[in-house]
Design goal:
This protein is α+β, with helices and mostly antiparallel strands. It has helices spanning 5-13, 21-50, 58-69, 72-78, 89-107, 113-129, 137-149, 168-192, 194-197, 202-208, 216-220, 224-240, 249-269, 275-283, 289-295, 298-309, 315-331, 333-340, 413-421, 431-439, 444-448, 500-508, 512-515, and strands spanning 348-349, 357-358, 369-377, 389-390, 462-472, 483-495. It has a 4-stranded antiparallel beta sheet, with helices on one face. Strands 1-2 form a two-stranded antiparallel sheet. Strand 1 and strand 2 (357-358) form a beta hairpin. Helix 6 (113-129) runs antiparallel to helix 7 (137-149) and helix 7 (137-149) packs parallel to helix 14.
Length: 518
């Protein structure tokens, strides 16, 4: 039976298959932004954090790891890193700045598999030897995202719009990544803290999050109905919306828009490093060119259309894409099992290359904010009249009169670790004693991690760490304060450079010989 003219018209009006030329372009540019800030925070902090004279020196770490695993080669197999070959300060700095330069190339539109694999290998090399400073969930998330991106582009052609079309299987893998990130974050909240179930977590979250920003105090003092609505919106975006990432075009676009909007809200309400920018990257895969073509510059859209018209399929790229799908499917077993488990782990990798991981954020929310404040004095004898001067960090709360800062997507890593240390005891964070030792000698590297030097002429005689409870001062405080604080006690008692207990402690960790004044 011949088709009627009406049927033919229906076929003519059928929407074209989605294309992803603009999708790939946006994913790669945003990934370039994330890589840039990740490597920039490395390049500017690598020496004082993990250099040979850093707070946690890499050469000492690699030496001990090699002994633990039996040899340097076995250590490399367990912790793959280029720095098993050479971990000198010059090599660490060169690798970090090379990452900055390659990130800029990616940001400016030059991307191929080779460049993206180099970026991935460089960053993985730092993550595996970064110790406390590189144990955050977004480190493995960046590695998984960067590895997927290497299959989104041709092997060699670096042009923003190469002749090879974006592989659809890789687009689906980005959606699978976004799905796991959001669902993992939602489930860990529901399972992890009662306040997410009774809708009260935001009563304290803006105040107790790692590094608040200038908007955080205003959000904190919003009415309770606002906070409870915020938790409901959180659950909606993390537990329900991700399921529509794989559906028809309209639902997929709406899901992508809601998830991106949720990340933008998180960016506006705090300083969560580059996490939220990175999380947006796979969410862009929910959009195709039919939507992006309406919001991006017309000139860019025309270039994408021209490239699509001249595109040539690549058999090798198609094989590589489906091989990646098979690998991700295989490695997804443990992350999926973890998502289904009542004992769900947060931000965990199940393979040494961090290729397919499980994620989550704020499984529990603190009800009070505690801060460690380091103070020094030049007085030779301690007493009630001793004048103590405070060290300020780049962004974490200190001086109650100082306004919360905006620093993300850059991450001051010492600030973050001090936030974690304030939840525990000094014994759990031994590098805090190493930091005190360095400040007792006005070490330039350690001081570069701080916002001020209270003793520019000569080092202090004693340093101590005080323990405070911090609360937001109400907006419009007559004294101009952003915080009010209450002293709870001493976290580390006053120490001097010749204190025997400090010297024994540093010697036990192998830090003393390298750090003696020269």
């Amino acid at each position: 039976m011949d088709a009627s003219p009406e049927d033919s018209n229906k076929k003519d009006k059928a929407p074209p298959a989605p294309s992803y030329w603009l999708t790939r372009f946006v994913i790669l540019r945003l990934l370039g932004v994330v890589y840039f800030f990740a490597f920039l925070s490395l390049a500017t902090q690598v020496q004082p954090l993990i250099g040979s004279h850093g707070l946690l020196p890499v050469p000492l770490f690699l030496e001990r790891a090699g002994k633990h695993f039996g040899s340097h080669f076995e250590g490399f197999l367990q912790l793959p890193s280029l720095f098993w070959i050479d971990a000198s300060d010059a090599t660490l700095a060169a690798a970090a700045w090379a990452g900055v330069i390659l990130s800029l190339l990616l940001l400016f539109g030059f991307a191929n598999s080779i460049l993206l694999l180099v970026l991935w290998a460089l960053y993985m090399s730092f993550v595996h030897i970064g110790q406390d400073w590189y144990g955050y969930g977004w480190e493995i998330q960046l590695l998984e995202t960067g590895f997927l991106a290497a299959f989104l582009v041709p092997l060699v052609d670096p042009r923003p719009f190469p002749r090879r079309p974006p592989p659809l299987p890789v687009i689906w893998l980005f959606r699978w990544l976004a799905f796991r990130i959001m669902l993992g974050a939602g489930l860990i909240k529901i399972r992890g803290d009662e306040c997410w179930r009774d809708l009260t977590c935001l009563y304290s979250h803006y105040e107790t999050q790692p590094i608040p920003n200038p908007l955080s105090p205003y959000l904190h003092f919003m009415p309770k109905w606002f906070h409870r609505g915020g938790v409901l919106f959180n659950h909606f975006c993390e537990l329900l919306v991700p399921w529509f990432s794989f559906g028809p075009r309209l639902g997929r676009h709406i899901a992508g828009a809601l998830m991106v909007a949720f990340q933008v809200i998180l960016i506006l309400s705090g300083n969560l490093s580059f996490l939220n920018y990175l999380t947006i990257v796979p969410m862009i895969a929910c959009f195709d060119d039919s939507l992006l073509g309406r919001v991006l510059p017309r000139r860019l859209v025309a270039r994408a259309e021209s490239a699509a018209a001249e595109a040539l399929e690549s058999k090798s790229q198609r094989i590589g894409s489906w091989a990646l799908v098979a690998l991700v499917a295989l490695l997804s077993y443990y992350p999926v099992r973890n998502l289904l488990s009542s004992h769900q782990a947060m931000n965990t990798s199940f393979n040494r290359l961090k290729l397919v991981n499980t994620y989550g954020a704020f499984g529990s929310v603190g009800k009070e904010r505690h801060e460690i404040v380091f103070e020094g004095t030049a007085d030779q004898v301690l007493g009630d009249a001793t004048r103590w001067r405070e060290y300020e960090f780049w962004c974490k709360p200190g001086d109650p009169l100082r306004r919360p800062c905006v620093i993300a997507p850059y991450q001051p890593r010492l600030d973050w670790q001090i936030w974690f240390a304030a939840m525990s005891r000094p014994e759990r964070y031994p590098w805090t004693a190493h930091l005190i030792w360095k400040l007792l000698h006005n070490d330039p590297g350690a001081l570069s991690l701080l916002a001020n030097d209270p003793f520019p002429g000569s080092p202090p005689r004693y340093i101590r760490a005080q323990f405070y409870r911090y609360e937001f001062a109400p907006p419009g405080d007559p004294g101009g304060a952003w915080w009010k604080r209450t002293l709870l006690g001493t976290w580390i008692p006053p120490l001097s450079a010749d204190e025997p207990r400090l010297l024994r402690f540093l010697a036990a960790y192998g830090w003393l010989p390298a750090d003696r004044p020269r």
